[in-house]
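User: Predict the structure for this protein chain, please.
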Amino acid sequence: MSADIVFHLASYGVNHLDRDMDALIEDNVGFVARLLEVTAKWPVRRFVHTGSCSEYGMASSEGSYFCEEQPLSPISLYGAAKAASVLYANALAIRLGVPFVTLRLFGVFGIGEAAQRLVPYLIDRLQSNQPVDLTPGEQVRDFLYVDDVVEAFLAAARCEALAPYQAYNVCSGKAVSIREMGEIIANELNSPRHLLQWGTRPYREDEAMWIVGNNRRFVEATHWTPKTSVVEGVRRVIAAAEARGRETAPKHGF
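Assistant: Here is the predicted structure, written as structure tokens:
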């Protein structure tokens, strides 16, 4: 077995309930280390590792955009584990001679997302005409549709201009609040706004209020740009959910 491009997307801790400390280290740091040791024997042209915007921690101020040059200062255990995976794997990759690049993803959403995540949770509740328990919704995020993320990984595999042992932000660079996202979904489903019960759920202890990235470094190197707006991405997810609903609906016949 061998390959010239390796994409590593596995991680533990994306779900905020997954906070087993041993698993955070083993599944984020240990796994990528072992994968590097195995693939170092292959003719690998590029090893593309998946990082996270959680590695940055808190923004210095509202309205500031995370850049790759700034120090990592995670405030969550997941963010710390992801930062550790990048630092350790970079050092190991240099030692093994594996061209290693990290793509730090921001706010990925789309078809196939886990049910407890914001967009599928909102769609499921609103389609069922049920109230949605939500935080006050003041958090600001940088949402990126999954198809654009796939294109970013392919661009990273093809582009010779990406420097090895560096991290690149993969994001839209556009600020959208959680409240705005909720209202977009409600509008697309023609759902009454009173079902969005803002403030009935508290913020998490490690909740960052502003996470928006600067994608200039990656865009200049690869000429990649996100093509799917938040509204269009939401429409695609809703269409997929409606299609699944039709497929699972009981069939009546004679």
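Residues 126 and 191 are 6 Å apart (CA to CA).
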